[in-house]
Amino acid sequence: MFKHGELLVVSILVGSIARALILRIDYRQFPSYPHSYLIHLTLGAIASTLGALFIPALLAKEYIAVTFLTIGAQQFRDVRSLERDSLNSIEKTELIPRGTAYIEGIAKLFEARNYLALLTALITSLIYYYSDLLWAVIGGVVFAYTLHYFMQGITIAEIAEVKIVPLNIKGMNIGIEQTIILNVGEKSALKKWQEEGIGIKIVPKDENARATLANLGQRQAIIHDLSILMGIKLDQGMQQFTPLARLDLDNGTLNLIIIPQEPDPVFIQKAIKQIPVLESSQRKPLKSKYGQKAAD
Amino acid sequence: MEQFSNNNSILAVIVQKENKAKVAGGVPIFYTEDERELEEISMLLARLTLGMVHDLGNGVKIIMKH
Predict the structure, then answer these.
(1) Interface of A with B (CB under 8 A)
(2) Which of A107, A227, A287, B66 has the CB geometry, 3.0–4.6 Å to A80, for a possible disulfide?
(3) Is the pLDDT of residue B1 over 70?
(4) Nearest to A73 by CA among A30, A102, A115
């Protein structure tokens, strides 16, 4: 085999497999179809190859070859816009859109995962060069797992309490407690809300959570995910059944109304708790001096 | 849907004849004979325009596109 052949093969394999495994773990959040799978597996393999080539290039004293890493970075930025474009283009066909913030989060994540493949391959090849095959594989796997662990974001369960409450229907207005959320003009629609509607209160645990839940993108992500997990009674031209989330202005509680297909309070609660908090929606006023003082 | 759009507009107003004085303006206004017709017409208009019926609480219903 050619020089450094084994090093290359091992690193590329470990990097690609790491990418492939992560693709499997996340099937729920990012519905990928067979073709999408192939696209990301291939891109992962390309990323791993770039990472694996780094050490041999240095060994051959081809320092200028290091610039191909920047080409890689360029390439992965395209992955982000590819993912963003495709999700944006199907957004019109969703009964409940994901919202731009959610799409941006997904796109960013797919870009980041290519870097994971690249770095994993690089680390594997580095360890292989200084020790042997076994340690290289172990090191690569541990590195990929650790990186993946730190790349996982937090979920709603960590920032808020979720309560299921009855709807408060006054005249033609539907709300939760004192917050009016929706006005329906049709008696039949009102009856359906009365019989099957479910109210959900998402109570933020602190000021950081309050600011995060107030974000429109985060709200839309919650509604989108919940409607997929629990099913929803909604169709085009049936806007009177649209699930909506509105803030209680006095305490920052997010009030959500929905007519689910599966009106099971326990699982609705669990479903909401495992919805991700979007990276771009997170706010941390408590991290600033004034924010903290004002919160006291 | 509603949360990100800013083109909310009133498409039509439906009102019983007795409440005629409560409405005027540039959108189509539908006068109905009774309560039952009011419900029927507003529902139909909402389906046809892919809009939504809102009740203003004073006997006036509007169709809005969100």
Answers:
(1) 96-97, 99-100, 171-172, 183-189, 216, 219-220, 236-237, 239-240, 242, 244
(2) A107
(3) no
(4) A115
